[in-house]
Automatic annotation (TrEMBL):
<dbReference type="Pfam" id="PF22780">
    <property type="entry name" value="HI0933_like_1st"/>
</dbReference>
<dbReference type="InterPro" id="IPR057661">
    <property type="entry name" value="RsdA/BaiN/AoA(So)_Rossmann"/>
</dbReference>
<dbReference type="InterPro" id="IPR055178">
    <property type="entry name" value="RsdA/BaiN/AoA(So)-like_dom"/>
</dbReference>
<feature type="domain" description="RsdA/BaiN/AoA(So)-like Rossmann fold-like">
    <location>
        <begin position="5"/>
        <end position="404"/>
    </location>
</feature>
<dbReference type="InterPro" id="IPR023166">
    <property type="entry name" value="BaiN-like_dom_sf"/>
</dbReference>
<feature type="domain" description="RsdA/BaiN/AoA(So)-like insert">
    <location>
        <begin position="190"/>
        <end position="352"/>
    </location>
</feature>
<dbReference type="InterPro" id="IPR036188">
    <property type="entry name" value="FAD/NAD-bd_sf"/>
</dbReference>
<protein>
    <submittedName>
        <fullName>NAD(P)/FAD-dependent oxidoreductase</fullName>
    </submittedName>
</protein>
<keyword id="KW-0274">FAD</keyword>
<keyword id="KW-0285">Flavoprotein</keyword>
<dbReference type="Pfam" id="PF03486">
    <property type="entry name" value="HI0933_like"/>
</dbReference>
<dbReference type="InterPro" id="IPR004792">
    <property type="entry name" value="BaiN-like"/>
</dbReference>
């Protein structure tokens, strides 16, 4: 039989991994990319530093598809495999205390460079500015592009990503290709994204950063997810690592027309009792100061007028005159500022897409389509999304590897 011809659609993280693995296994690989160059999104990852994986990666860091599906793919090409793969290409890893892995150069460009060099070395044909719009099955697969070109292959790997940050290439066209082949697409929603709130004081707090705890609550105030880290107030709502981390649940609930509340513990290093004690010490230690001056040095200065307005305390009231009830109200606000979340930012800002091609329609071991054999799926296009911390790229590497191994088998 002639050499196995594989066409990979999409030159992002998963597509580049798939191209290398398939070419190493002897396939003749053509990679079609709709943008003018491959790997644009990789350059934006980890604030330009590329958090390429995480040593604590397990299926629990992912959402969407069934955990046995995710676990199987992660096992087939795990974090150690990823680190060895990149080390062989020249990427020396550096690992943070929380397990995040970056290239030692702290440059996402290094990760893309070594992938591009390997693709080139393996003589993969990379064709940019080619947007795939249709796939047909005759004796071979025929792939049609918007640029009026046709390509022929024995196997196809779909690695088109989700809908997040379309400027970097992934504009959701992969879902249309998948649907045309009979696949179900679980409604894509933005994840790892900023949250919008209508709280009246946000404009005043714009730019204030506070390290604390962010919890997503349901209507009954049950905590659905809780994360710790630096919370950034913005004029539209809140951002920062813990917010992105809890955003998936918020996004999901908003899309299902459910109420979403965010509770912020702005003094998470102190219990309510400890905070109350600290306030008593401040109030009694500096009783002659107005309450607004008394708070300077204890919380962010720009937060003081908001805190006092929201708790109904006159800013020029003397510390000595603060009642027990007022003190308790201050504690309640600082330990559980509750915001109604009415939306999330959209695709331009979201780092990852939740939802995608339903995983029960995909072979768990090879990532081959059950609807159209010979077509393989990988990366964010599938209904699998990870938490913030290097997990989404790990999913791209693992699933790209598995799809390529599957497609390389004749
Ligand atoms: C700002 C930002 C920062 C991030 N930081 C991190 C991080 O530090 N760590 C981490 O783990 N994850 C991070 N992520 C998420 C991670 O980048 C993605 O999950 C991962 O890149 C997905 O890989 P993919 O190959 O599935 O899709 P993509 O990387 O999106 O690649 C898909 C490719 O397919 C091409 N394409 C799409 N449709 C077609 C078509 N019809 N024809 C031809 N080509 C097509 C696109 O142009 C694109 O190049 C970040 C995401 C963003 C946006």
């Amino acid at each position: 039989m002639a050499k196995n011809k594989i066409i990979i659609i999409g030159g992002g993280a998963s597509g580049l991994m798939a191209a290398i693995v398939a070419a190493r296994r002897g396939a003749k690989v053509t990679l079609l990319e709709r943008k003018d160059r491959v790997g644009k999104k990789i350059l934006a990852t980890g604030n330009g530093r590329c958090n390429m994986t995480n040593v604590h990666c397990t299926y629990k860091c992912f959402h969407g598809g069934h955990h046995t599906f995710i676990e199987g793919i992660l096992k087939a090409f795990n974090v150690t495999d990823t680190m060895s793969f990149f080390q062989e290409l020249g990427i020396h890893p550096t690992i943070t205390a929380s397990g995040k892995v970056y290239p030692r150069s702290l440059q996402a460009g290094s990760v893309l460079d070594v992938l591009r060099h390997e693709v080139e070395r393996l003589k993969v044909t990379v064709l940019c500015d080619e947007e795939v719009i249709k796939i047909e099955q005759n004796k071979q697969f025929v792939v049609y592009t918007k640029q009026n070109n046709k390509y022929y292959g024995h196997k196809i790997i779909l690695a088109t990503g989700g809908k997040s940050t379309p400027d970097l290439g992934s504009n959701g066209t992969g879902y249309e290709l998948a649907k045309a082949m009979g696949h179900t697409v679980i409604r894509p929603i933005p994840s790892l994204v900023q949250l919008k709130s209508d709280a009246p004081f946000l404009k005043q707090l714009k730019g204030v950063k506070i390290t604390g705890k962010a919890s997503i609550l349901d209507e009954r105030d049950h905590i659905l997810r809780e994360e710790y880290g630096e919370i950034l107030f913005t004029d539209y709502g809140v951002s920062g690592p813990p917010i992105l981390q809890v955003s998936r649940i918020a996004s999901d609930r908003i899309n299902n027309n459910k109420n979403v509340y965010l509770s912020l513990d702005l003094m998470s290093d102190l219990s309510k009792k400890e905070l109350d004690k600290a306030l008593i010490e401040r109030l009694t230690g500096m009783p002659y100061k107005t309450i607004q001056d008394n708070f300077i040095g204890f919380i962010n200065k720009r937060m003081i007028p908001v805190l006092l307005k929201e708790t109904g305390i006159a800013p020029n009231k003397k510390a000595a005159d603060i009642s027990k009830q007022e003190r308790q109200n201050l504690v309640i606000w600082l330990k559980g500022l509750k915001l109604h979340i009415h939306g999330t930012h959209q695709w331009n800002q979201s780092q990852v897409t939740a939802g995608g091609v339903k995983t029960t329609e995909i072979d768990h071991q090879t990532l081959e389509s059950n609807k159209m054999p010979g077509i393989y799926y990988c990366g964010e296009l599938l209904d699998v999304d990870g938490d913030c911390g290097g997990y989404n790229l790990q999913w791209a590497w693992s699933s790209g590897y598995v799809a390529a191994v599957g497609a390389s088998q004749s």
